[in-house]
Amino acid sequence: MHGLTESVIAAACSRVGQSVLHLDRRNYYAGNWASFTFNGLLSWIEQYKNQQEVQITELEQVWRSLIDEGEDAVPLSALDSSISNLEVFCYASEEEEKEEEMKTPLSSFQPVNAETVSEEANGDSTEAHDTVTGDDTTASDAKTPNEEHEVSEPKEDQHTSDISEPSQSQEEKESQLSSSPADPPVEVQKKITYQKLVKEGRRFNIDLVSKLMYSRGALVDLLIKSNVSRYAEFKNIGRILTYRNGKVEQVPCSRADVFASKQLTVVEKRMLMKFLTFCLDFEQHPEEYQDYTEKPFREFLKNKKLTENLQHFILHSIAMVTQHTLTEEGLKATQHFLRCLGRYGNTPFLFPLYGLGEIPQCFCRMCAVFGGIYCLRHSVECLVVDKVSNKVKAVIDTRGQRISCSHFVVEDSYIRDEQRQSTAYRQISRAVLITDRSVLPSESDQQISMVTIPPLESSAPAVRMVELCSSSMTCMPGTYLVHLTCSSSGKAQEDLAPVISQLFHVSTIPGEEPSEGAEERSKPAVLWVMYFNMRDTSALDSSSYSLPSNVHVCTGPDDSLCSDYSIKLAESVFHHILPDEEFCPPAPNPEDIIYDGDGPQAEGPGFDESTNTEADKSLAEEEGATHEKSP
Amino acid sequence: MHGRVKVKSTAQQEEEKRKEREKKLKAFVSARDAVLRKRSAGEHDEEALQLTQQLLSSNPDFATLWNYRREVLLQLETSREKDEVQKLYESELHFIEACLKVNPKSYGCWHHRSWVNTRLPQPDWTRELGLCDRCLSLDERNFHCWDYRRVVVKESGVSVEQELQFTDRLIGSNFSNYSSWHYRSTLLPQLHPQPAPDSASNTSPSPTASPQIHSHRVCEEQLLKEYELAHNAFFTDPNDQSAWFYYRWLLGRAEREEMISCVYVSRERERVSVAFSKPVHAQSEGLMLVLDGQPQQVEWRSTHPRLRHSPVWLCDLPPGSVSDISNEHNLTVHWTEKYTHRDCALYTGCAESWCRDSATDQELFRSELSVEKSSVLQAELQSCNQLLELEPQNKWCLLTIILLMRALDPLGHEKETLAHFQTLKEVDPMRSSYYSDLCSKFLIENTILKMEYAEVRVFSLSNKNLTTLCHLDQLLLVTHINLSSNQLLRLPPQFAMLQCLEVLEADDNAIESLEGLYHLPKLEEVSLRNNQICKLSDLESLASCTKLTRLDLRGNPVHKTANIDSELSQLLPLLCKSQAFVV
User: What predicted TM-score, i.e. pTM, was given to this entire model?
Assistant: First the structure.
């Protein structure tokens, strides 16, 4: 797979002149770091569903014959089980576009779940879904008549709400009132239907992993150092929000925010600024915190006489640590946050346009520029291990080809349980929402917001939410793409649905307007949501596997906000493979590259599926595999 | 090395760059010479535009070329239709924009842009405003752009509200920005002027009462909002000075009325002394003296030849005009330029007389800060004290508190003020001399107030660490002054304004210069023990004080001079002749 770590290793090896062959059983780049168009995501969901049913067929015979004497075969797993508990619900109205401004009467549509999203993604298959069992239970038959019935009725509704003239009949008024009491008459927004989402699907870039980039984090540093940043564009996160006392509030974190904040008194402003200034170089003032090194950061904050307001902001939104985090770690986290402020804007974070999935691809591109070869839909069946040296000397691919290699880099999900010493991995709970407005509308509707949601109950995990606007090139105009992430305590839906229902309006019936209080109506409506769990293998290390020493296992994305873990892992694997080489030195400017005819012709076909056949037999590598060239 | 990208070596790259630079320089020099030749040949054609364009694109600071360009454009303009002229200048604007990208702070570019807009038949101000916004978002302190923006705003009639919102936006994104705060201070009085004091009252609608004096003030409602804005800034970052300066502006500064504050007449000397509310140059101010209804031809002079502008001026009356003690006289001094005057009556039997407004009457020393209501100032003082509790070392806060205290009750807060000054000198030692001088000034003001309340002519301020003397014009009538045990270095020329001074005590200072002891007609005793007077020549000015009978110089370096007595008697013959007591 081409996850971030594998892509960075591949780029780094290729950059210093190693031959790299990069194989992936998927038909897309970036593995679990991928981002998809809406339709692409629907296909991915479909694949997930199908994989659950696939029978693992052993094709041992094919590769057995390629194993010589003195060699052992270590088969790889054909099944990727890193994603689980995937569920999808659609709340957008499924009417034709011309009716999209209508209020959908009750009983018209039912939620749709993953199992029912069929090949014809835009089809009528809106089977009802029992959210508890995950089974298709309700009949879809009743739907068609209903739908036809609605077509005429809501049109009147629209009429009344559009033209609210005094001439309206009493009846019309009543119907308007009953369907949407006190609906703000202004901004009759075009409702977004499911069809619309599908039609505009290309405008979405939905990441499986939701992370931000600290402007002074390992990833940004690497992008700059290696010159890979030229392959991507970035947008600043506009604001940091938090959910508190039932409300979404802006967190004043930069100097400008503190100045402008209306929630803080002037004294609080001073206290906050004073505390943050202290955190910037807290190491210089050990007397301030040494009595608290063994105590939680939270207690230290209390001791500093910070108000409730400020304690919340610092603990949950700036340091982003838990109730139990120790003081020094909390101070370090705060310091890191602050050091990242002001480099690119008034928040510490950047986000790549077109989604985080761009980042592994940028490194793939650099790898390709320096001669790396990429093959999608092409996997490795087994490793060929030399019995004497206990090293991998070759791999056998799914087409029965034997490719020799000197190092093999692979993602954790390819490893079979037999090769594992430990299966102590965690899970990440994820939800992806498409909504119709921001959780905190402001002057600019084109801001990326990072929202910290402290645990709703003491046992629940803290949830991190990133709301992407359409100018981040990840969703269609008029919608927001919202990512929720937390470390799992159960299924993603169990972990995240309570948070979603607090912050969003989740209609019981697709396309329905909230009818409860004004509060519910002020919340953004969820049009579509996907839940899934992703395996977090970041706690594993080489001692967790019983594999030859030249097999380097990369763990998948961790649950943290940034990608630093994956970058550091890449660097350490690289130094393991090539102890004497520099990690990602700056790539030369295109004008400084000398083309002498048979050199690699720049980045032309970079991402196409290269024909792998001529991949030099002497140099093979693997799935996210890099390889040290043999002479 | 199959598959490995080959990269030019550093040396290769350097060499390429060097060649490139050389080539550029050659091209530039030859183009420059061509342009200058054309200009001296008086050619104003398209080619000139092209050539200067090439040069200016790489170096927009070449002012001569812009000048030449203007000549050419003016020439071309004459031979074209109006819409062609429009096009000509529009393309000029595009060109300038490109130059600004090379150097956004080029004087030449911005100036030329202003000029082009005056030539454009139909200038597009909206576009220009957009350009300013863009430039200021890249560099919010580009003062060239600020200047240009003011021109654009003026020409295109952008509303003051919009401009105020613009400053809101800039201050919101970064409040460390003098330009924005300052701009704000020019906009607010236009948008929220303080109502004229009497205009609301029906009883005395005085349209003539010009609001001139307070025309830069802002109405109270808006002021309170501005105070809040400033609080937000200095509570967020108390070390950022821009908000503090704005705050000082908000607190205001009264402009004192220009007036004659005192007229003093001495029968014996036949002399009139006049004090003004500010230093003036009397000879050119149209001063006129009327004695008993008769305008007098008099010669005005300042109290010291080094003071060309001075708040105190003297003149001698014609001999014998007031010398008869049994006569009563009426004097009027007219300040014709300011349409103001002051009378003074010299009654029978009086040796001297004066007429004046005291510092207390004029609330003279409040004028440093604020004409605000004291309730507003009191609230502001509280806010600042709140901040000081959190930031006991903050110099801006300390200084502002001192100023607020002075505006509210200078004598009542004297002790706290002195303590704050002490802290200021400790936390900001780089400016301790400034604080000492400021503190001296406040102490002198307080002593003047106390003296006036006590209705005496004795000024005593000893052992208070005075480093400087000021407000000496307010001491015109003082007869005794005690400045002992301070840190004074000199008696400055202004000291000569103490026209009534009889006794001076200034022991235990570090005085080196006595310039100000000059023509003090009543000075009899001078005690300067333990000072730093080194040379006999430093005592020269004393010779002009004809009534001096006692001079104490013990403990000065000069005292050790050989033959001090004879030297002194030579220098100050009058003093010695009258059997003066020189120790």
Answer: 0.77
- The set of residues, in sequence order, having a beta carbon less than 8 Å from that of A309 and lying 6+ positions away, is A263, A264, A268
ipTM confidence score: 0.77
State percent of chain A over pLDDT 90: 54
Q: How far is CA A299 from CA A292, A326, B393, in A?
A: 8, 9, 27
Alpha-carbon gap, residue A331 to A283, rounded angstroms: 9
Distance CA A164, CA A172 (A): 10
Q: Tell me the HSE value of B110 on the side-chain side, using a 13 A CA sphere.
A: 19
A interface toward B at CB cutoff 8 Å? 17, 19, 255-256, 258-260, 266-267, 269-271, 273-274, 346, 369-371, 588, 592-594, 596, 598-600
For residue A631, the chain B residue with the least C-alpha distance is B1
> Closest residue of B to A366, CA-based?
B5
CA–CA separation, A3 vs A555, rounded Å? 9
User: What is the pLDDT of chain B when averaged over all its residues?
Assistant: 87
Distance from chain centroid for Cα B208:
29
Give every strand in the sheet of A402-404, ordered side by side: A71-75, A380-386, A391-397, A402-404
What is the C-alpha separation between A21 and A630, in angstroms, rounded?
Answer: 13
Name the token pair of A586: 């700056």
Element (DSSP H or E) covering residue B458: strand B458-460
Q: What is the pLDDT of residues A307-358, one digit of tens each?
A: 999 999 999 999 999 989 999 999 999 999 999 998 898 899 999 999 999 9
How do residues B204-241 score in pLDDT, each as one tens digit?
A: 333 333 333 445 678 888 888 999 999 999 999 999 99
Q: Rounded to the nearest 5 degrees, what angle is found at the Cα of B36, between the Cα atoms of B35 and B40?
A: 120
Of the candidates B214, B220, B185, the one whose C-alpha atom is nearest the C-alpha of residue B198 is B214
Averaged pLDDT for residues B27-32 = 91
Quick: pLDDT tens for A193-228: 899 999 999 999 999 999 999 999 999 999 999 999
Q: Is A90 exposed, middle or buried (0-12, 13-18, 19+ CB in 10 A)?
A: buried
Cα of B366 vs its chain's centroid, Å:
17
- Those residues whose C-beta lies under 8 Å from the C-beta of residue A58, and which sit 6 or more positions away, are none
Report CB contact under 8 Å: A270, B6.
no
Closest residue on chain B to A586 (Cα): B7
Cβ neighbours of B416 (radius 10 Å): 13
Candidates B32, B130, B119, B125; CA nearest to B77 is: B119
A511 pLDDT exceeds 80? no
pLDDT tens sequence across B228-278: 999 999 999 999 999 999 998 888 766 677 889 999 999 988 999 999 988
Dihedral angle computed from the Cα positions of residues B480, B482, B488 and B490, in that order, rounded to the nearest 10 degrees: 20
Do the strands A71-75 and A380-386 form a parallel or antiparallel pair, or are they unpaired?
antiparallel
Residue B231 in contact with partner chain A when CB distance is under 8 A:
yes
